[in-house]
Structure formats: C-alpha cells, structure tokens
Amino acid sequence: MRSTKQEIKEQFKAKELKLTPQRCAIYEMLTARTDHPTAEDIYRTVKRAYPMISQNTVYYTLSALKKAGLISEVNLGHEHARFDANMDRHHHLVCVSCQEINDVYDEALNRLSVSAAKERQYTILGHRVEFFGYCKRCRDKGKASL
Amino acid sequence: MRSTKQEIKEQFKAKELKLTPQRCAIYEMLTARTDHPTAEDIYRTVKRAYPMISQNTVYYTLSALKKAGLISEVNLGHEHARFDANMDRHHHLVCVSCQEINDVYDEALNRLSVSAAKERQYTILGHRVEFFGYCKRCRDKGKASL
DNA sequence: GAATAAATTAGGATTGGTTCCTATTGTAGT
DNA sequence: ACTACAATAGGAACCAATCCTAATTTATTC
After folding, report:
1. What does the pLDDT look like over A74-132, one tens digit per residue?
2. From CA B54, how far away is CA B62, in angstroms rounded?
3. Could you give the CA distance from residue A94 to residue A133 in angstroms, rounded to a whole number?
4. In degrees rounded to 5, what are phi and psi of residue B142?
C-alpha cells in the first residue's frame, strides 16, 4: 500500500526527518512494493526519477529510515540485505530456489516463547519465524526438468 | 561435543570427503565450539596449528562441509556469516547488544506450520525461529550505566 | 609400495557491496 | 531572507568473499 506524499510528509515530520525529494522517492517506492528489494534494486529504481542520485544517499537514507523505525532491514540468508516498509507484525516464507520472499501473517506465530530457563538468562524483545521451501513456480519448474 | 579424529575420519569417508589435516582441524574445532564462529574466527584459530593455511582453504572447506551436510551456515543478521557443527534440530536466541548466540531446543517450536493457503502455494521444507533480546551480561551492563 | 587420476591447498589477484571522506547543496526554523 | 545544520553527490577506500593457477596431497589401483 503505497504512501501518499502527504502521508510521507507527516511521518517524516513526526520522526524529525528532513524531507528531501530523494528520501521521499525512496520511501514511497518501498511502501509500494512487497518484494523486499536490496539497496542496489532501490538505487536503480530511484535513479530513473533522479539520475544524479548516489548510492551513498540510498544507503544513508535507508539507515535513517531504519533508525526512525519506518522501515526494517531483513536478513534471511540472502546474499544482500533487503528492505521492507511493511512494519506490521509479520513473518517470512522464502523460496530456496528463486529467493522470493512472501509475507506471513499469523497470530499464533506472534505468541511463541522460549523456555522459562532461557527467559531468566535473557530479556526477550521479540522473535522472527522464517519458513523456507519451494514456491509454486520453482516447484513446477523442478518437476518439468525431471 | 568435540568429535574425535576417528569419528571425523568415518564421517568424511561416508560423505566422500578427502581427509586432510586442515579439514580435520577445521571440523574438529567447529565441533568443539557452540558459539558459531565466523570464517575469520576459524581461520585465525586453525592458523595457530597450521600457520601456512590460507583463507581460501577455510572458505573452500566450509563450503564442502556445508554441502556434505556436516555443518550449517547461520545467518541471523550478524555482519558476517557464522558456522555451526551442531546439526541437531534447534533454534537460536541472539543478544542484540553483544551478538552472542544461544541455542534453543524446544519441540513445540519444531512443529510450527503456515496457513493452509500458503501451504498450497509453497512446498515447505522447514523453518527457523530466532529470538532476540539482551543476554544477562548486557542487560546488567545496561543497568549499571543508567 | 609405487603409479595414477582427481581433488585440495596456498597465495595472490580480483570483485563488489558497503562505508568513509569532503565540498557543495538543500532544508527547516527564526 | 538568514542561519545553522543536515543531506547529497562523487569518489576513494575497505574488506569479506570469490576467482585463478600452479604445486601438493589424497585415495585408489596395479
């Protein structure tokens, strides 16, 4: 669900982030996608609208947005870090073949806990669940090649 | 639980891995630790016994051991990949401050499933659960500095 | 226990994502 | 408009991981 310019302006204001065209473009693009792009993907996409933008700006902006809690960095064993503007509580389902990421919403998964013993050793802040397997496309492709 | 030289020899034989002193040292060291070292950690440690060993050998060996299913690569948002010779089913608990990794054994966590809808789209192979929080040491340190 | 074929190793070169540095530009508040 | 300060562009630097090659070493066969 893509954020509007006005929504972005308000969110940035609330987080005391200066509003620049580059930032706006990066965040707007991230809110419009659900595929968890890499920094490089983001750079290439935003470059179409802002040809002079530098990779540095992309990295700096992603870092600022992350610190502000507007986006999250996702690390699921992919080669490069991926970014997600969906801050609703969710988990992930990753294709081990094409690396596609699918979001998983499930209240039961949000309520997991570790053993009492571990709870005493750690102050638990949260948890993540990552399912992995073959997406429909890759599964079918596999069958075809047998 | 450190593997003995004899055990390693048998395991390598079973997996059709050639047994070399460097490999043996790398795998033996990994089985003796539970802290999920990085490739660099492994390199520095094994270098003490084999000063001429190259980083390349470490990476090549880790890759071979991983392919053979004797170790696993763990990616929990740390800066670098980490390696684990503990192939028993388990999950992880990570300190967000010092990055320490703690193993979690819990049958209930092994039985999670995604929704029926997702099951139709994906062929699920497995899942991982990662808890994060502050370990006892970092929690106490935090209190001290307040 | 040598000979052979194939895999492993060491070392150096290379890659490529990410970070660092700095002058310039742009933003928000006064 | 003016000011203080943060963001940007561009390039240089960094460094874990990969690639390349020749020399060794391993496991197997005779």
Report:
1. 999 888 999 999 999 999 999 998 899 999 999 999 999 998 778 889 999 999 999 99
2. 13
3. 6
4. -60, -45
Bases of chain C with protein Cβ within 7 A: 7-12, 17-21, 26-28
pLDDT tens-digit map of B100-125: 999 999 999 999 999 878 888 999 99
Rounded CA-CA distance A133/A93 in Å is 8
Half-sphere exposure of B114 (CA within 13 A, CB side): 26
Kindly report the number of other CB atoms within 10 A of residue B123's CB atom. Answer: 15
* Best residue in B90, B122, B129 for a mutation probing chain A (most A CBs within 10 Å): B122
For D9, nearest residue by CA–C1' is A54
> Can you say whether the dihedral through the CA atoms of B55, B58, B60, B63 is positive or negative?
negative
Most A CBs within 10 Å: which of B94, B127, B132, B138, as the mutation test of the A interface?
B127
Q: Chain B: nearest CA to A48, how far in angstroms?
A: 30
